[in-house]
Amino acid sequence: MIKVENVSYSYNGKEALHDISFFTKDEMVAIMGPNGSGKTTLVKLMVGMLKPYTGKIEIFGREPEKARNLIGYMPQRDAIAKHIPIRVGDIMMMGVSKKRFPLREEKENARKVLEEVGLLHLWEKKFSSLSQGQQQRIMFARALAKNPSLLILDEPFNAVDVPSRNKMLEILKERKERGMEIVTVVHNINPILHQIDKILLLNKKCISFGTPSQVLTSENLREAYGAEIQMVTCEEGYCHPLIGDEHAG
User: How far apart are CA 111 and CA 64, in angstroms?
Assistant: First the structure.
């Protein structure tokens, strides 16, 4: 269960988020909005990396910093310094254990999840030597490796090809069916639109929160993006917004 109540946050006196509130339980939620809308700031608040200036956040009834053992977090790929010669296996173990000498079961689980995304053969490779898509899938696997109750992903599909993205979505669907709560920041909602339960449309404030049909309206999108957004309805009846915003915010 995630509960966000009247949360605001500022950087050096400049407001990044204003009075954000939403509640979700047993759902897959997408956070979308234009560049600079506060999406990454919000997920950092949810994992306890930042503290709200006002309001509060509860993760399974706890403050975020006290719920970190229940959270799997995938930051944007740039969070891993490229000049550090760290191996893929080491990155995976960072996701499952804080011990200097991890348990055998922890290593086996990390290898199992990496195999699930099709990259176990890269265990001994340097992370910096890999393609952007491979790095992204490894960061995704690391977030899953400790089998969290809540999975928070920040732009997980950037630089990932379509087959790999579809595999990641299959894994997310399976984890959700097993009871995992999932929150993902996306710049393009369309590839996951049929998978999600709720959308938080954000531009420093909550423009709308609800089901895709409730949120993805011309009025809401105009308010969030400051322009008219063309919509296309697919055979399943979902309205897909054609948004040219291709970067994280």
Answer: 28
DSSP SS3 for 26? coil
pTM comes to 0.90
- DSSP letter string, 170-193: HHHHHHHHTT-EEEEE-S--GGGT
Maximal CA-CA distance, the chain? 55
What's the token pair of residue 47?
């994992």
Give the CA-trace dihedral at 176, 193, 207, 148, to 10 degrees: 20
Run of H or E including 95: helix 88-96
Query: How far is Cα 56 from Cα 53, in angstroms, rounded to an integer?
Result: 9
What does the pLDDT look like over 204-243, one tens digit per residue?
999 999 999 999 999 999 999 988 888 888 877 778 888 7
- pLDDT tops 90 at residue 106: no
Phi, psi of 9 (to 5 degrees): -150, 145
